[in-house]
Amino acid sequence: MTKLRSFLKHEMVKFILFTILILFLPLAFKGGYLLNVFVFVGIHTLLAVALNLLLGYAGQISLGHAAFFGLGAYASGILTATHGQNPWLAMAVVAAAVGTLAFIIGFPILKLKGHYLAMATLGFGIIVYIAFNEAVELTGGPSGFSGIPNLSLGGFSFDTDFKNYYLIWGMTLVTILLSLNLVNSRIGRGLKAIHDSEVAARVMGVNVRFLKVQIFALSAVISSIAGSLYAHTMTFVSPTSFGFNFSVELVTMVIIGGLGSIYGSFLGAALLTFLPEILRAFQDYDIVVYGLLLIFMTLFMPGGLVRGIPALVGQIVSRAGAGSKADA
Amino acid sequence: MLKKSSFILTFVVSLALLAGSALAAPPIKIGGLFAVTGPASFLGEPERNTAQMVVNGINAAGGVKGRKLELIAYDTQGDATKAVQAANRLIKEDKVAAIIGPSTTGDTMAVIPVVERARIPMISCAAGSKITEPVKKWIFKTAQNDGLAVARIYGDLKRKKISKIAILTVSDGFGSSGREQLKAQASAYGIRIVSDDTYGPKDTDMTAQLTKIKGSGAQAVICWGTNPGPAVVARNAKQLGLKLPLYMSHGVSSKKFIGLAGGAAEGILLPSGRVIVADLLPNSDRQKKSLLAFVKDYQKHYKAEGDHFGGHAWDAIMLLKGAIERGGENPAAIRDQLERTRGFAGIGGVFSYSPSDHAGLTKDAFVLVEIRKQDFALVK
Amino acid sequence: MHIGQQIAQYLLSGLSTGAIYALIGVGFAIIHNATGIINFAQGEFVMLGGMFTVFFLTVLNLPLLVSVILAIAASTIAGVAFERLAIRPMKNASPISLVIITVGGSILIRGIAMLVWGKDTHALETFSGNEPIQLGEATILPQHLWIFAVTTVVIICSKLYFNYTISGKAMRACAYNSRAAGLVGIDVRRMVLFSFAISSAMGSMAGIIIAPLTMTSYDVGVMLGLKGFCAAIIGGMSSGLGTVFGGVILGILESLGAGIFSSGYKDAIAFIILLIILFIRPHGLFSKGDTERV
């Protein structure tokens, strides 16, 4: 028990430090464009945490998560801009609806394993993407949907990057806290068991199928909320933001950050959101650099940034001067 | 700790960049947002190239009233999120006086709220009519509205007494905007759309859609897309022995299309900006001088044919140059002067902006051309 | 044109696109069967085949046959290099990292192609003319016959290879159990390398024979790769007839979907069918489900 308590204490300290960092970060930006970038880092962190619950903890891949993000964004946009509904109410209703959808399709989809699961989620993502493009009357089609209102609370409108930063990071921090609780609970241990061996988990009395579907739905709900926040921050959505590429980008965030690490998701999201900014120096070469980076990261930091950097430092120290590991 | 150090690093790098540029005599900064990579690169690349070429040309000739221009161009990849990030950077970090681009209607609609709030004039290079309808104070555009191209085609159909048509549009921003206009204007010309189909931007075979059209009783086919889709459509139509008149959009008005479609291009009609027929125009044409200069410059710099997409950026920079010459580099002054532009003969047409019109072109911006003997010919 | 004629054309069009998907799908299946990897870069080899041919043909002005052979050779070298530099160093990697590394590889290959050859689309002359061939109520082009022929030859060759040659059998052994294959003296690493070589050669061949019809550019690989993947999944990841049927089913569904239901949703229709197949028969329509890995 004391061990558990000290572990929780440790987690709490980490979380508080992280919260402080996030709260005071805008002071360093002085209202510059980095603040705007960090608004997106917040949204992407939310998404990466959501996907990490599925991918990192339950070990189930999804190459279609951009679809849940997009469904949240479009449904929020349509309900508020076209039908004048309250954005907060819309966000909740949409999240519930997307969660229900995920719950229903979760049963047949999560029966699949490995690359069949990858293909099925990919297919789902593409179907939803096509619907965004083709349902022109509803979504505005490929040229997008504009005129989505900013969120507001009473008379207070979240209409600047500064306000949105705290709104989005507030939501993200709450999600991180809840996720940390979840993964350190009985459910979290059940998930880890599924990740290691489904058969063993079943033997141990974990209702594998139901638990997987629940996590899938939860992950979809968080993604949908991220989508709603995105729509109200951007005030504009278009299908290109929710395609296969973005699904892959999300998986990349989780893997580069570190599977099964909530803070890793933040690192991955931050790195990938910053990447275009960093790669601007390479101009047209950025796509090549991006590809190389993916390969190098997977080759040399299979545990992600969150484990890779300490390991790399250790390796450099211990191996100073030793031969290359090209043929390892 | 790690996170912190990466922020600091980014900060230092950007500070260093800022400091580096501050040492030289301050040029007037113009931001560019172009979809240089990604699915809309056929727009973004010629636009970026042209903008850079024109800016270099202006600077080589002594700049604008003695001040050099500096183009800071970012790649939006045709993605709304990245476009907004880049726009924010242009405004807050680079502190540009004006922005040209983005290349696509989607990107443009995404950045409009950011630009309007920052009160920076922006000249979009995208065609969607909703960009300037309703008029937004700080937003202008140079690309011709798709509606004007549709009007050109429908005018020709009416002349030929064709009333039943089939449309085949690509399912991206360009195609859906064209489709919207084709459907909206049909009744005004007494035209009925008997078959309304789409194809994906990366589709490789359109025989299914064309087979359906063949059975639909249409008297003409209008295909709305950009390379390479329409070339596949042209070839598939020939394969199926489809004898109906085939109209394309201005999206394929460059020699590249003829190269791709080969023999199947023969007899295809399309509305186009004047740039591809520059040398065929009468000397009295007001745009001829600009057009020939643009075509020659582009050929010299990039060893490629300048198309009307590049022309959108040419127009945008030249319009900005005129506004800065008249009113200085203050964003508000540039905006006011842009709005007072009258009769500027550019690549896309003769521009006259006004407080109620930020698109600035009339139907004359398009001519109808036919592909004959692997070249474009003017249809009178 | 009455409905019967139309359907004949839909079926024939579907058959010809299906053959392309099948050829690409077989490439996926071969690598998967030897290594358990889904190579998301497979589509890029299709692109490389077409682009290399255009390059040799129009830039270096070589004859068509020489260009084709060189293009297949160059793509194969690219495939081998990819395996040596990116796949082999990954020991004991999780399937998810393998997915990511092949995705990274595909982005990299596409990016290099874009930088080297530019973003333009290129056309390629058809191998034997453009005169449509009337087949009953429907028409196809001579190039389609090339596609059918090459697909047939490739499928027969791969069947013979896997069933009757030592290295083919060895590769199948690696697929069932690579540890055991290693224990009986099969050089597993060489087999993996070999599978990449074969499938990149096959992918590039697909890219070459379709380029005259569909044209080619640095980014054609994404969609074609995806469709080929789809074909392979429907076919249960077999390197033989299963994938051919998978490709043809997909092609015909697309074509009928576009012609009869809605051209905008035709890909969605294809993917919905794919999902249903996966839900009902998770290991493909034609597989007995004996290759499941836990």
UniProtKB/TrEMBL annotation, chain A:
GO terms for cellular component: plasma membrane. InterPro entries: ABC_transp_permease, LivM-like. It is found in: Cell membrane. Coiled coil: none annotated. It is a multi-pass membrane protein. Keywords: Cell membrane, Membrane, Transmembrane, Transmembrane helix. It comes from the Bacteria. One of its GO terms (molecular function) is branched-chain amino acid transmembrane transporter activity. The keyword NAD does not apply. The chain crosses the membrane at residues 12-29, 35-55, 62-82, 88-109, 116-132, 165-183, 210-230, 250-275, 287-305. PANTHER family: BRANCHED AMINO ACID TRANSPORT SYSTEM PERMEASE, HIGH-AFFINITY BRANCHED-CHAIN AMINO ACID TRANSPORT SYSTEM PERMEASE. This is Branched-chain amino acid ABC transporter, membrane protein. It comes from Geobacter metallireducens (strain ATCC 53774 / DSM 7210 / GS-15).
TrEMBL record, chain B:
GO terms for biological process: amino acid transport. Residues 27-367 form the Leucine-binding protein domain. InterPro entries: BCAA_transport (IPR051010), Leu-bd (IPR028081), Leu_Ile_Val-bd (IPR000709), Peripla_BP_I (IPR028082). Gene3D superfamilies: 3.40.50.2300. CDD domains: PBP1_ABC_RPA1789-like. The keyword Transport applies. Residues 1-24 form the signal peptide. Keywords: Amino-acid transport, Signal, Transport. Pfam families: Peripla_BP_6. Belongs to the leucine-binding protein family. This is Branched-chain amino acid ABC transporter, periplasmic amino acid-binding protein, putative. It comes from Geobacter metallireducens (strain ATCC 53774 / DSM 7210 / GS-15).
Automatic annotation (TrEMBL), chain C:
It comes from the Bacteria. The keyword Transport applies. The chain crosses the membrane at residues 7-31, 51-82, 94-117, 145-162, 191-211, 231-256, 268-286. Keywords: Amino-acid transport, Cell membrane, Membrane, Transmembrane, Transmembrane helix, Transport. It holds the Pfam family BPD_transp_2. It is a multi-pass membrane protein. Its main location: membrane. One of its GO terms (cellular component) is plasma membrane. It is found in: Cell membrane. One of its GO terms (biological process) is amino acid transport. GO terms for molecular function: transmembrane transporter activity. PANTHER family: ABC TRANSPORTER PERMEASE PROTEIN, BRANCHED-CHAIN AMINO ACID TRANSPORT SYSTEM PERMEASE PROTEIN LIVH. Belongs to the binding-protein-dependent transport system permease family. LivHM subfamily. This is Branched-chain amino acid ABC transporter, membrane protein. The gene is livH.
